[in-house]
Design a protein that fits this description.
Layout: H1 2-21, H2 23-26, H3 35-67, H4 72-82, H5 87-102, H6 104-113, E1 121-125, E2 134-137, E3 143-146, H7 154-163, E4 168-173, H8 179-182, H9 185-191, E5 193-199, H10 207-218, E6 223-225, E7 231-232, E8 239-244, E9 259-264, E10 267-271, H11 277-285, E11 294-296, H12 308-314, E12 318-321, H13 334-342, E13 346-349, H14 350-353, E14 356-360, E15 365-367, H15 379-383, H16 390-403
Parallel strand pairs: 3-4, 4-5, 5-6, 10-11, 11-12, 12-13
Antiparallel strand pairs: 1-2, 1-14, 2-3, 7-8, 8-9, 9-10, 14-15
Helix pairs in contact: 1-3, 3-5, 4-5, 5-6, 7-9, 9-10
Bound molecules: zinc ion.
Organism: Alkaliphilus metalliredigens (strain QYMF)
Transmembrane segments: 43-60
Domain Metallo-beta-lactamase: 130-325
Length: 404
Amino acid sequence: MHIIFAILWFIALLGVIIGVNYPEKVLWGSKTKTEGKVLKTYGMALIIFFLLFGISLEYLEGINEQGDYVLQGNLHNKEDSEIGEDYRDYEEVKDKKISEVKEPEQVKHHDDELNLSNEVLKIHFIDVGQGDATLIMTPAGKTILVDAGDRNQGETVVSYIKAQGIETIDLLIASHPHADHIGGMASVVQVFEIGEVYMPEVTANTKTFETLLLAIKEKNLKIKKAKAGVEFNIDSSIRALLIAPHSEHYSSLNDYSAVLRVDHGENSFLITGDVEAQSENEMLKSKYPLQVDVLRVSHHGSNSSTIPAFLEAVAPTYGVISVGAENRYGHPHKELMERLGAFGMTVYRTDEAGTIVATSDGREISFDTVPSIQGAGRQRNSELGGNIDIKEWLLDGILNKIFD
Ligand SMILES: [Zn+2]
């Protein structure tokens, strides 16, 4: 409706402009064809249609506010139209707004297209006792699984993933062929639809490894080589990249670990398998950025991993340690915990908290549980005007007191 008033207003404007010079051309029915008569007639029309145009716009705005579906771009377009430009664009946006009000189903769709999605990235550090299993659920609903715990944890991992409503693992990564990482993976391969499988190029002469290879073979899946530089095009709203291993041969099987970096908006995560000093030193020398917000602390908190230089480069705000209670390795090692604590990190442990879920909206990261160590926050963050959330930090402190 407003566009009709806009056209009438424009006609009235033309009437004034033409009429001032040639009154007889615009005042057909009138006896007195003077400039004054022109201004009176078309001037009045000009004002009336201007007001009607404004009212009809406000009416539309009202519909929008009720529907609460105002998109950021509209404000900009509205300004354009108010200064009399680009009516067509404005019309298109307005039409979209109306259709959105009528069809809420489509709103989400538009939001997706405009990247205003409310979808989040969730990383589940599944409690598998002494071992690792990290489930990543992307904003677009894709699934990545890095490791699946020991053999006796296969059912735990399978039922946890099923409980998330997942039927397909789009990307399965076996960080390295140690039983506490791949033991439960054969069950996962048997139960779920599997997209791609990545493993570092190293074998282990164990029954566990053989069982996994057989399960993969039975599903006619191909194993692709996990190495630094492999990037996964799994979901355009995240970046998933392997930043290790770099070498073909290592003295420790742990150093073959595939290290996955995931970036989601301003947030970043590093899933490190069981890497030790040798691979960490290689990553330090590599071209790949190491700084992240959340570090899945390597090798269950072993002191031989997360060397000081690596920790300094990664400079995480949060650490997650996947470790079994009273394990025979003494993980996490006391020295390592002190190192993380001295670094000001907030540290979560699966042996204390059970499964830990980190949620990223692209700007902030939240955890569903209380930490073992509440970090004071890194100076780095304030220096960079960065992302430590003081409110969250204070709240965590209060929660700690309540739960103590
Ligand atoms: Zn391990």
